[in-house]
Write a structure and sequence with these properties.
The complex is a heterodimer.
Chain A lengths: L6 E6 L4 H4 L2 H11 L4 E5 L5 H13 L4 E6 L15 E6 L1 H5 L9 H20 L16 E4 L3 H12 L4 E4 L14 E2 L10 E2 L2 H10 L3 E4 L2 E7 L5 E7 L4 E6 L1 E4 L3 E3 L16 E3 H10 L16 E5 L19 H15 L4 E6 L9 H10 L3 E11 L4 E7 L4 E7 L1 E4 L3 E3 L7 H7 L3 H12 L40 E3 L9 H24 L14 E2 L9 H5 L6 E2 L5 E2 L10 H5 L5 E2 L5 H9 L13 E6 L3 H10 L8 E6 L7 H9 L4 E6 L13 H9 L2 H8 L6 E5 L7 H16 L7
Parallel strand pairs in A: 1-2, 1-3, 3-4, 5-6, 5-13, 6-9, 13-23, 15-21, 16-17, 16-21, 17-18, 28-29, 28-30, 30-31
Antiparallel strand pairs in A: 7-8, 10-11, 11-12, 14-22, 18-19, 19-20, 24-27, 25-26
Chain B lengths: L2 H9 L4 H8 L14 H5 L10 H9 L3 H6 L11 H5 L6 H14 L8 H16 L4 H9 L4 H10 L1 H9 L17 H22 L1
Helix pairs in contact in B: 8-9
Classes of the chains: A alpha/beta, B mainly alpha.
């Protein structure tokens, strides 16, 4: 439907804008240069009256495109929330008056800045259309939970309690998972003074009684295709039958597996039946059936037991886990208290190096263990010698001596390994390895990949990506609950090592995220961090060369390929970062309100003064997630920014098209500063790979500069954190100094 | 070796920690130490101790009875209370040190010539005579504790201080002859005797 476009500009004169800037001139700029069909001023545009004025114009005058010149696009978002129009914001407050000194000699450049931001906003608006959902969205309230342990059962119970039907798929023949066979669990409520009752039987009963939850035992996922809101999942049972479910969103709670203590010969795990892991001790405690725990070799009642903490974990030795399971000290305290409860006056020693008891009740539980006369010795065990009894040799770290103790039973506090599927980026890790050792490690990981759990029919692999050590975590800083496969949430110990209570909390969060994802998918709205965004990428098919860069580089694996190799965007999997847009060499990918053209227009509509004016222009492409807010905060703090800078927020540095850089240089900009998020292993990019992709693409910008015969210093890419309030403006000012040193660009026409 | 010591060894053969819990003032706190070492780091005299408090607690838990009761470390405590103020677990460390000292003294295990132990005995004996401390006599006892010759040397060294104290009426030479006592001396002595009986009784019960 060809819609009549009507452009309206609104200039706010509140917050000092009216005093510092010539609003009349801004209005002229908007109507004459910006081609706004109407332009109004208001002394406080964000108040009820101002907002109503805009609403009225939209309703009565058929305004379809709105340009608001006021504060930063990050401010007053609730007030300026007009969903029926294409909207842009010229940042005159944080972008101009707050970063420039209020003096007569600066008023000219300040006004120039403001005029430019108006031109940019108007030009951007001209190439925007109102975002609306793709039409492929659908609401499906079914939640699929993969894994029937504590995590999976909690997610199922919580989602069902919120009114969403749940399919719970469990590989084994019964619910309960690892904890199902445990004697007791770490206490989760005050006074945290004794091991607590195992919650599993109660949860199983709750699930059986819940008619919103369908349990699929002895079942796995043979195939998962589609996207949030329209997943088609083939559930296969052991007996060979299968059933296809339509699902809105997925929680993966595939749990953990105990570390293989066979790799600890020094502790005689293979030699003596009386050396057990913490996981195995649970079975001994259950088998004791309320009586004293007996040692496995000869059934003797255990009178002395030694717990060796950090057995095969927190260690850089070959075959050991490099990380700490986080909960195994609490587990040992719990198990030591089993002996105090069941074995009378049993000597119970915990050999620890760093005792870590996280959680609200961790410290109280530790004290309770001490009260119960569990002996905590700071020492590192080196060897277990077998005999009639076991002899544990250890270094006492307090008394600084090599010593030993004799006991009936040794419990190894071993770590937890994730029960995750194969990493879709295992091959990439091999390709990107920086040295031979890393490459060999990555190659081994690729070859020993576990079987798939989700069997996703995605262009980018069958399962959730790993973050570290095989765990399916997503992003520990920017969105701890979001994942890299939209609408699929990892929860519980597959995400990171945790105990039953943490797993229950985690599962509750994941269930709510899954519900949110299903609902969002129903409305065609994006998930974090562009929550609620309706715009989605589309491409001009006739221009596409099927190069597959977008399908390969999408950090969320959102894009599949059709039979001919054209991209298929799956808007409900998409996070709207625009990394595909930045990747596209032929520039055919765009969003309704964000495209190569919208930014290009902004770049081109900055007025570039003649060379003899000695007013350089510096283009700043700032990531809207971290760098742009850092600049806003700098403005609030009154940090000055050079008057030559023109800042354009981008969705992610990954969306930056190399053509913007080339065009800006050709248009006479003197310097370009790009600000994205940290991109190494501890990345802070909200879109995971965007910043890294940008850095890689921009490494080729040198060729462009060479062709234009320009100095390489004119283009620079920085990693900026949201906390870089002083540094971010400084980086821009640094570029101004650089330009001063090397001189203005010769490309000013 | 005293009879009491032999009896205690027999009774708590396997666990010195339990012996400490039962017989040492505030001893039931020892198991609550979490080995952070803040006490050792806070002790102004810590570097002069063979075993700082944290280590003593660990030795108790490691059944090192002879080493703990035989060390003079707990006698080094000056009761500055730094450790108590700082212990994150709230252990009354100063009191436990005193408790350990008292217990080792009772068992006859204190090192010979341990200065704090000697001073404590002199202080106690002095106090018991009149129900109050006779500072002149306390000073003299300290001067002469290592023999007459050393006593004269000590007295000469502090001659000026003594004279000044007398001038300022902070010390009275006449106190040397008898010295004055508390109002109800026999009542005081009865009270102390009763307290000692109770304490001995507790230990006998422990036997």
């Amino acid at each position: 439907m060809a819609e009549e476009k009507k452009f309206a500009g609104y200039i706010c004169t509140g917050c000092g804008l009216g005093e510092r800037l010539d609003a009349g001139q801004l209005e002229t700029t908007a109507t004459r240069d910006g081609k706004m069909q109407s332009c109004k001023q208001h002394e406080m545009l964000c108040n009820a009256e101002g907002v109503q004025m805009i609403k009225d114009d939209i309703a009565n005058d058929d305004v379809t495109h709105v340009m608001i010149a006021a504060c930063s696009r990050r401010a007053k978002v609730e007030a300026f929330n007009f969903t029926d129009v294409a909207l842009t914001r010229a940042n005159l407050r944080e972008g101009v008056i707050w970063v420039r000194p209020d003096t007569d000699e600066n008023s000219e450049t300040t006004q120039e800045m403001a005029d430019d931001y108006i031109r940019m906003a108007c030009a951007e608006l001209k190439s925007m259309t109102k975002p609306s959902a793709s039409g492929e969205q659908s609401l499906n309230k079914n939640i699929l939970v993969v894994g029937g342990g504590v995590t999976g059962m909690t997610a199922a119970i919580e989602a069902a309690a919120a009114g969403y039907p749940v399919h719970l798929v469990e590989k084994s023949g019964k619910l309960g998972g690892a904890i199902g066979g445990y004697y007791k669990v770490i206490p989760n409520r005050s006074p945290y003074d004794a091991p607590a009752e195992n919650p599993v039987p109660g949860m199983v009963a709750a699930i059986e009684a819940d008619d919103k939850i369908t349990v699929h035992l002895n079942s796995t996922l043979a195939k998962t295709e589609g996207a949030p809101g329209r997943f088609n999942v083939e559930v296969a049972t052991e007996s060979g039958s299968s059933e296809t479910l339509t699902i809105g969103a997925i929680v993966q709670a595939s749990g953990w597996k105990p570390y293989d203590a066979g790799q600890l010969p020094e502790f005689a795990y293979d030699k003596s039946a009386d050396v057990v892991t913490n996981h195995e001790l649970e079975a001994l405690a259950v088998a004791a059936n309320g009586g004293p725990i007996k040692r496995p070799s000869d059934g003797k009642e255990v009178q002395s037991v030694c717990f060796i903490q950090n057995a095969g974990q927190c260690s850089d030795k070959e075959g050991h886990l490099s990380y700490f399971a986080g909960v195994t000290d609490l587990v040992s305290i719990k198990q030591a208290m089993y002996f105090k409860e069941l074995n009378g006056d049993c000597d119970t020693t915990i050999l620890f190096d760093n005792l870590r008891t996280p959680g609200a009740g961790g410290e109280d539980f530790y004290r309770a263990g001490q009260e119960a006369m569990v002996t905590f010795s700071k020492g590192i065990a080196s060897e277990v010698v077998t005999g009639d009894s076991l002899t544990v040799k250890f270094e006492d770290k307090i008394l600084n001596e090599e010593t030993e103790m004799v006991c009936d039973l040794v419990v190894l506090a071993t770590g937890m390994e994730p029960n995750s599927g194969p990493d879709p980026y295992a091959q990439l890790m091999v390709d990107e390895a920086e040295d031979e050792e890393e490459k060999a490690k990555a190659q081994a990981a690729l070859e020993n990949a576990p079987p798939s759990i989700l069997n996703l029919q995605y262009r980018q692999g069958t399962d959730l990506p790993h973050l570290k050590n095989g765990f399916n975590d997503s992003h520990f800083i920017c969105f701890p609950y979001e994942s890299r496969r939209t609408g699929i949430y990892a929860a519980g110990p597959v995400r990171r090592p945790m105990d039953a209570q943490q797993a229950r909390d985690d599962a509750t969060g994941a269930a709510l995220k899954a519900i949110q994802a299903a609902e969002n998918a129903g409305k065609g709205r994006a998930a974090h961090p562009r929550s609620g965004d309706l715009s989605f990428p589309s491409f001009r098919k006739e221009g596409c060369t099927q190069c597959k860069r977008c399908t390969v580089e999408c950090p969320f694996g959102a894009i599949n390929e059709d039979e001919e190799g054209y991209p298929m965007y799956n808007e409900s999997r998409c996070r709207r970062c625009g990394t595909c847009m930045g990747a596209c060499p032929v520039r055919v990918i765009s969003f309704e309100n964000y495209s190569v053209e919208t930014v290009n227009q902004q770049i081109k509509n900055v007025e570039i003064p003649e060379e003899w004016d000695e007013k350089p222009r510096i283009l700043v492409l700032a990531c809207e997630n971290d760098a742009y807010p850092a600049l806003d905060q700098a403005a609030q703090a009154g940090v000055e920014i050079n008057p030559w800078a023109r800042v354009i927020p981008v969705r992610c540095l990954g969306s930056v098209s190399l053509s913007w850089v080339t065009d800006a240089l050709n248009n006479g900009y003197d310097g370009i500063v790009m600000m994205g998020c940290r991109r190494d292993d501890d990345y802070q990019c909200h879109f995971v790979r965007g910043s890294a992709m940008a850095a890689e693409r921009m490494s080729k910008v040198g060729d462009t500069l060479d062709t234009l015969n320009l100095e390489p210093e004119r283009v620079i890419l920085h990693e900026v954190a949201i906390t870089d309030v002083e540094r971010a403006p400084q980086l821009i000012n640094d570029m101004a100094e650089t330009v001063e040193k090397i001189g203005l660009s010769p490309f000013k026409f | 070796m005293s009879d009491l010591n032999t009896a205690m060894i027999e009774k708590y053969r396997s666990s010195f920690l339990k012996e400490v819990e039962a017989n040492v003032e505030e001893g039931e706190w020892v198991k609550m130490c979490m080995q952070c070492g803040v006490c050792s780091g806070s002790c102004p005299l810590g570097k002069h101790w063979d075993h700082p408090p944290q280590e003593l607690f660990m030795m108790i838990r490691a059944n090192k009875r002879d080493e703990v009761l035989g060390t003079d470390s707990m006698w080094m405590c000056t009761s500055c209370y730094n450790c108590i103020a700082r212990c994150p677990r709230g252990l009354p460390i100063t009191h436990i040190m005193h408790g350990l000292a008292v217990y080792s003294k009772r068992l006859g295990l204190v090192q010979k010539k341990q200065p704090t132990a000697e001073f404590s005995q002199i202080f106690w004996d002095n106090l018991m005579k009149k129900g109050r401390v006779n500072e002149l006599k306390l000073g003299l006892s300290m001067y002469f504790k290592d023999g007459f010759g050393q006593g004269i040397k000590n007295a000469m060294a502090n001659q000026k201080l003594g004279q000044n104290m007398m001038k300022a009426k902070r010390m009275n030479a006449m106190e040397f002859f008898g010295g004055h006592s508390v109002k109800d001396l026999s009542g005081f002595q009865k009270m102390v005797k009763k307290a000692q009986e109770i304490e001995e009784g507790n230990l006998k019960d422990a036997k």
